[in-house]
Amino acid sequence: MTETPNADVEVLVQRLDPDLPLPSYAHPGDAGLDLCARTTLTLGPGERSAVPTGVAIALPAGYAAFVHPRSGLAARDGVTVLNAPGTVDAGYRGEIKVILVNTDTSRTATLTRGERIAQLVIQRVAQARLVEVEQLPGSARGAGGFGSTGRAAMEGRG
């Protein structure tokens, strides 16, 4: 398999908190830029909060940013992004906030200011031109969903 060069895209970023680092990739080739918490917060079991990150961005038309959970935070503390992935549209210019939830049923999670809380993945997106039809064309899969290609299908029930 041959590698193709990255198609880098310029994204304007405004630092809203001068003491926090700009989002950055932890390693070469990473898909997500790390976002940090602008505030220290405590999330009790089942609690959620919109956590400010101290940055705003301007994406070019045809792009969107998607806020993904950090696997280490989820594994260690049970904290994840509630609406994963959260979507930042190209026209949005406000501060990026991450809706975090503590899924642990018994432990409180404390996140400190400057801690990496999520990843921001920048992707090219297409605008759909919807065409209404009376009936959709057939496909090999058909209308099966919600696990229809999994265990039930293998047991002849799907």
Q: How does this model look, in words?
A:
This protein is mostly beta strands and 158 residues long. It has one domain (12-127): Deoxyuridine 5'-Triphosphate Nucleotidohydrolase, Chain A (Distorted Sandwich), CATH 2.70.40. Helices cover 7% and strands 35% of the residues. The chain has two helices and ten strands, in the order E-E-E-E-E-H-E-E-E-E-E-H. The strands form three sheets. It has a four-stranded antiparallel beta sheet with strand order 1-4-8-6. A four-stranded antiparallel beta sheet has the order 2-10-5-7. Strands 3-9 form a two-stranded antiparallel ribbon. The longest helix has 7 residues, at 71-77.
Summarize the structure.
This protein is mainly beta and 158 residues long.
Find the count of extended strands (DSSP E, 2+ residues): 10
Structural class: mainly beta
How many domains? The number is: 1
| Overall mean confidence score, pLDDT | 92
Q: Per CATH, which architecture? A: Distorted Sandwich
Radius of gyration equals 20 Å
Could you give the order of strands across the largest sheet? 1-4-8-6
**CATH superfamily, called what?**
Deoxyuridine triphosphatase (dUTPase)
Strand content: 25-35%
CATH class: Mainly Beta
Q: Could you say which overall geometry the principal axes of the C-alpha atoms support?
A: globular
Layout: helices, strands, pairs:
Elements (H helix, E strand, L loop, with lengths): L11 E4 L17 E4 L4 E3 L4 E11 L4 E7 L1 H7 L1 E3 L4 E3 L6 E8 L6 E3 L4 E9 L26 H4 L4
Antiparallel strand pairs: 1-4, 2-10, 3-9, 4-8, 5-7, 5-10, 6-8
